[in-house]
Q: What sequence folds into this?
């Protein structure tokens, strides 16, 4: 065993002055083996040692993934979990960790029947007395092998396994210490998972996460409050003497066992109740739900007082609306009046324009070729214009705008109409009549 | 997966083939006759070609057409070859400056085949045997060659192999291959660092190589070869013994008649092999000479005495190799025996006697060594084949460049001073760098000083009181005359710190420290001390 000398002076790193490695010699190495190929890769790629180790490690992970190892094998212990088991007295096998003896210390109650058979075979191959004697141990050092056999017997019998699992306190997960800081879900999920193994009812609801809804959480705690456990403590019974000589003593032991069993069961139930109670008290979701409930109540209370407030509000609103409406109406009336005036003026302007265009019809159309009668034509047109009512005015003005012939025709038509109706005498409009 | 890369060890006397089977085990392939050590013999009777054990049997009846011991001739000119070793079989002739053989096929048809062609045919037979066994065509192989094979010889081998559709991916030196195979099944020691003598005792020649193993990298420190020492020398001693015995009984000399001699030799070989496993063996030859039968039994002791001279030559051969590497036997951690002769228990016994107790003699009698030392080389080749199968040709070519192969090797150990002030080597001499080594000091506690030193080893000799029991001796095997009264010299290897390099101080260690030594390619030594509990790191570099 290598030991190191004690530090005498206060140094961290001291390189001896002038220290140099002795001159090295260049020699060829043999190009064989895995280590040479590694050396070659390192040299060619210029990897440092640590870089190369990292790359190799990554590669190794991949090869492990690809290799077709029995997945069960990976779950078994590679070496004995508890070395003291080797020296354990086989007669006291009940106090030994049977799962550890089988190499199932990781799986424990989760181990399937198939896994138990496989693990047993593996342990037997390793610890069979014949194998051990080949390794130099004497043949009668078979205590551990006997424990393995007992473990196999216990774990493959459904009833016996239940009894053993009940008393497998190693598999129990302790709840977090009171008052210590921890993540609720991280700390409690394994506790409930381990307790769940004793449930008669399956499936057992899971603890869930912070996001789980209230109903599920309530169901969860409801389940645990009404938890129905098959846990039994027969495994811890005192051995009942097998001889028939003392029946009274036998019965006495049996009674004692039963009493102890019941006591333990009651204690276990009480423990569980306490555990669930504590979890519930510490559950942040329960706190959250309580807070939410409180808020809801406050909201409702506020709502109840709200009716009267709403009425007053509605009244004020109606008043404001009415006022606004009146204002709007007044404004509309003013604007309508202005509009009317404007239209009237526009009509007047149009009439004026029409009259002017008809009056100018003679002049514009070179007096229809009779320039000599220009004065008479203008006079007669003026008469016609004055006689025309509003509608006719628009009509005639429209026609007059087109060309000389239609202007003349329109004027003639209007003149004839007036003559016929007696409004004008024919002589006054001789040119058109 | 495409067809596997075959590992072939091609010897003068026998060849072996191996591959890595789908279960990732090394599988040595037996030929259709069930031989795993396939005799490197070809024999021709008319149109028929015989190979392996069947050809070897022809050596008695048909020696002129039976080609033996041809491996070493490849790629060499006729003048450079010692053709006398083929005397028992087809005589070697000169074909265009190369070694060749004239074979009679049929009554007056003579075929002149060069050694290149013979090697091609031999490799083809091995390839067919492997294909039969695996059920896939084989296209690539890793071939082992002795350390003294020249590039020209390797090229000739590659050409011969290419002729029968075998691509030689890599040539591997025989001792490296053997050591690779050994280390694959029996890791050398905890640190993985060792100096190993790989002694390959074949049929007609012996080779030894002193290999320094440092973190899985092999460096050959020295090689020795003896082209006349081998299993055949043992056979010759046995044949001589039997011939004398026969002559005394029957007044007829079997050595004069080539056929009698061949018969006697064949049976002597069988007897020799039996004696490796049993303490007595019988030899029985019908009509050995002049119609006289020969039947006698011989025990192992008699055989060992008869061949004692040869055995001591074997042992001396190993010590010569150690000397050539300028090492002391105490520097050696193990002697790995390979080749057919290694089966003989006397060989290991002699070496155990000659070398200090610290040297493990890894022969078939050793618990931590293979039972088939003659298969090590081809197993190593197969392992290397499996390894290089993951690399493509360019990568391999790159890896074989001199710039990769030639690396710097430390000449002195680097280590620590322990609590008692003794130097503890961590990186041994002949370690090639870049390298990284780490050691755990679990017992470390409190404030500690990590003194990094360069160390020197020396051999200390002490004379023990006469009554102490003997452990080491310089004498030969005549141990009967050994008297306990002689003062005994105990030799031990010690290190002492020679040069102080770096001192590191760590404080408040609770659960031990890990000390990592790293030398990068520029020879910069970096020592890192890491507290296992707190993870605090102190680093110093040179």
A:
């Amino acid at each position: 065993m290598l030991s190191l000398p004690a530090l005498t002076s206060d140094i961290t790193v001291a390189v001896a002055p002038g220290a140099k490695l002795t001159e090295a010699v260049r020699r060829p190495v043999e190009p064989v083996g895995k280590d040479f190929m590694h050396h070659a890769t390192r040299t060619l790629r210029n990897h440092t040692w640590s870089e190369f180790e990292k790359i190799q490690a990554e590669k190794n992970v991949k090869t492990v993934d690809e290799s077709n190892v029995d997945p069960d094998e990976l779950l078994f212990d590679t070496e004995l979990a508890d070395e003291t088991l080797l020296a354990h007295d086989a007669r006291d096998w009940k106090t030994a960790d049977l799962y550890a003896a089988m190499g199932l210390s990781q799986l424990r109650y989760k181990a399937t029947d198939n896994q138990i058979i496989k693990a047993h075979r593996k342990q037997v191959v390793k610890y069979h007395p014949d194998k051990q004697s080949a390794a130099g141990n004497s043949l009668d050092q078979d205590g551990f092998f006997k424990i393995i056999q007992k473990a196999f017997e216990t774990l493959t019998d459904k009833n016996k396994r239940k009894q053993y699992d009940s008393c497998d306190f190693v598999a129990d997960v302790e709840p977090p210490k009171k008052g210590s800081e921890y993540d609720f879900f991280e700390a409690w999920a394994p506790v409930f998972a381990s307790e769940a193994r004793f449930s008669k009812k399956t499936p057992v609801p899971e603890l869930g996460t912070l996001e789980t809804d209230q109903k599920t959480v309530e169901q969860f705690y409801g389940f645990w409050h009404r938890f129905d456990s098959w846990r039994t403590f027969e495994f811890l019974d005192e051995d009942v003497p097998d001889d028939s000589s003392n029946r009274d003593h036998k019965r006495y032991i049996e009674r004692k066992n039963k009493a102890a069993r019941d006591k333990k069961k009651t204690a276990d139930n009480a423990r569980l109740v306490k555990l669930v109670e504590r979890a519930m008290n510490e559950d942040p979701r329960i706190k959250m739900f309580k807070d939410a409930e409180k808020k809801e109540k406050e909201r409702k209370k506020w709502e109840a007082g709200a009716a009267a407030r709403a009425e007053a509000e509605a009244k004020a609103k109606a008043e404001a609306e009415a006022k606004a409406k009146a204002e709007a109406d007044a404004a509309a009336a003013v604007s309508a009046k202005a509009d009317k005036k404007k239209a009237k003026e526009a009509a007047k302007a149009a009439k004026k324009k029409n009259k002017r265009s008809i009056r100018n019809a003679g002049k514009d159309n070179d007096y229809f070729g009779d320039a000599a009668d220009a004065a008479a034509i203008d006079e007669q047109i003026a008469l016609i214009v004055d006689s025309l009512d509003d509608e006719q005015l628009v009509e005639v003005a429209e026609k007059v705008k087109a060309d000389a012939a239609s202007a003349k025709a329109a004027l003639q038509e209007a003149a004839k109409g007036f003559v016929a109706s007696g409004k004008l005498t024919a002589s006054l409009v001789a040119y058109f009549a | 997966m495409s067809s596997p890369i075959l590992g072939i060890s091609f010897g003068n006397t026998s060849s072996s083939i191996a591959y890595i089977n789908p279960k990732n085990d090394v599988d040595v392939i037996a030929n259709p006759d069930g031989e795993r050590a396939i005799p490197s013999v070809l024999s021709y009777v008319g149109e028929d070609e015989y190979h392996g054990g069947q050809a070897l049997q022809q050596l008695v009846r048909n020696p002129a057409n039976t080609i033996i011991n041809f491996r070493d001739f490849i790629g060499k000119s006729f003048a450079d070859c010692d053709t006398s070793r083929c005397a028992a079989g087809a005589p070697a002739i000169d074909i265009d400056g190369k070694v060749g053989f004239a074979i009679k096929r049929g009554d007056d048809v003579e075929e002149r085949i060069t050694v290149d062609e013979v090697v091609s045919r031999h490799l083809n037979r091995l390839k067919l045997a492997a294909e039969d066994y695996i059920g896939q065509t084989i296209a690539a192989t890793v071939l082992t060659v002795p350390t003294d094979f020249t590039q020209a010889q390797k090229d000739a081998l590659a050409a011969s192999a290419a002729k029968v559709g075998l691509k030689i991916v890599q040539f591997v030196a025989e001792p490296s291959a053997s050591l690779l195979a050994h280390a694959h099944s029996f890791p050398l020691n905890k640190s993985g660092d060792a100096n190993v003598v790989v002694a390959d005792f074949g049929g007609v020649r012996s080779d030894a190589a002193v290999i320094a193993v440092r973190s899985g990298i092999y460096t050959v420190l020295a090689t020795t070869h003896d082209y006349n020492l081998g299993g055949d020398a043992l056979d010759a001693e046995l044949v001589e013994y039997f011939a004398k015995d026969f002559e005394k009984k029957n007044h007829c000399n079997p050595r004069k008649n080539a056929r009698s001699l061949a018969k006697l030799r064949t049976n002597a070989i069988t007897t020799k092999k039996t004696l490796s496993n049993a303490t007595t063996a019988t030899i029985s030859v019908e009509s050995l000479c002049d119609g006289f039968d020969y039947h006698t039994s011989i025990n192992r002791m008699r055989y060992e005495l008869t061949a004692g001279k040869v055995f001591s030559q074997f042992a001396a051969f190993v010590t010569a190799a150690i000397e050539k590497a300028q090492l002391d036997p105490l520097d050696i951690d193990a002697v790995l025996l390979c080749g057919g002769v290694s089966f003989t228990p006397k060989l290991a016994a002699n070496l155990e006697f000659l070398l200090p107790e610290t040297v493990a003699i890894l022969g078939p009698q050793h618990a931590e060594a293979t039972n088939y030392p003659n298969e090590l080389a081809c197993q190593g080749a197969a392992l290397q084949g499996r390894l290089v199968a993951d690399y493509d040709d360019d990568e391999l070519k790159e890896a074989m460049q001199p710039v990769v192969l030639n690396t710097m090797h430390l000449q002195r150990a680097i280590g620590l001073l322990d609590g008692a002030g003794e130097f503890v080597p961590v990186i041994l001499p002949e370690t090639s760098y870049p390298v990284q080594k780490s050691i755990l000091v679990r017992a470390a506690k409190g404030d500690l000083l990590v003194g990094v030193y360069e160390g020197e080893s020396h051999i200390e000799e002490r004379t023990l009181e006469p009554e102490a029991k003997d452990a080491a001796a310089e004498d030969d095997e005549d141990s009967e005359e050994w008297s306990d009264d002689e003062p005994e010299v105990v030799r031990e290897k010690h290190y002492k710190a020679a040069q102080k390099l770096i001192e590191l101080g760590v404080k408040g260690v609770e659960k031990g420290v890990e000390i990592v030594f790293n030398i990068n390619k520029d020879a910069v030594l970096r020592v890192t001390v890491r507290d296992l509990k707190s993870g605090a790191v102190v680093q110093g570099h040179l």
Summary: Chain A is about 60% helix and 0% strand. The two ends of chain A are 151 Å apart (CA to CA). The interface with chain B takes residues 1-16, 19-37, 39-44, 48-49 of chain A (CB under 8 Å).
